[in-house]
Design brief:
Number of helices: 9
Number of strands: 12
Mean pLDDT: 84
Strand content: 15-25%
Structural class: alpha/beta
Radius of gyration: 16 Å
Low-confidence stretches: 202-209
Length: 237
């Protein structure tokens, strides 16, 4: 079983699409923990409109996305935790791909797939990755910081599944960081062991990709490099 955590804050126009992509997964053994982070619009009403017993809504005062994800981790009933933001979506076989990675690499705590960006114009653009230690298919990402130092992040929150115990061991997501709090978490996890990745979206897009909204790619690259450097210092410390 997999616990899916969705942090929610004022996404009434997007969250239905996200939930439909989650409920449409070919892998069916999961729960959905929606953490309402003090939404002031009709986001919660939209979620309540889905008649599915696997969905739970947990409310809290507005505390930021890191605190919302941490609350979702605490509420998760299962050790495998997958994240998806309330304005992102999964292709139908995403969870099945993650579960296969988990079965193939049982010694890992972090599992990731390739992903795509959806621009505001609705154009879909594949993520660009620095050189990976494996050529297509799946493999272990041992040199996380080398790969993460250039181009798009090798891990994106909506395309990652992590063992709950591993998340708790690194303290979850750092509250108070305005941007890149997820990059710090992935870097801390990378310091503790290998990451299992599936990287074949150019051969089978439906199977392994996540669609994400991104306004400025160059900004993302700069943020990623900055947090890689910061996280490297943390790991050394």
């Amino acid at each position: 079983m997999i616990s899916i955590v969705i942090p929610l804050y004022n996404k009434e126009q997007q969250v239905a699409r996200t939930l439909r992509s989650v409920l449409g997964q070919t892998f069916r053994e999961f729960e959905v923990v929606v953490v309402d982070d003090g939404s002031t619009d009709n986001s919660v009403a939209v979620v309540r409109g889905f008649d599915d017993s696997r969905i739970r809504i947990v409310g809290q005062p507005n505390s930021g996305v890191a605190a919302a994800r941490n609350r979702g981790i605490a509420e998760a009933h299962y050790d495998l935790v997958a994240f998806v933001d309330a304005d992102d979506e999964w292709k139908p076989e995403y969870l099945q791909t993650q579960y296969e990675l988990y079965c193939k690499y049982p010694g890992c705590s972090v599992f990731a797939t390739a992903y795509e960006f959806r621009k505001p114009s609705d154009e879909i653009v594949k993520a660009r990755f620095n050189r990976r230690p494996f050529d297509g298919g799946s493999g272990l990402l041992d040199e996380y910081f080398m790969v993460a130092s250039k181009f798009d992040p090798p891990l994106w929150t909506s395309a990652v599944m992590v063992r709950k115990s591993a998340l708790q061991a690194v303290g979850g997501f750092q509250v108070g960081v305005k941007s890149g709090e997820d990059l710090l978490t992935w870097a801390r996890l990378a310091c503790r062991g290998s990451i299992a990745c599936c990287d074949i979206h150019w051969r089978c897009i439906v199977r392994v990709t996540v669609i994400l909204v991104l306004p400025n790619r160059m900004t993302l690259w700069a943020i990623n490099l900055r947090f890689c450097l910061a996280a490297t210092a943390v790991c050394r410390g």
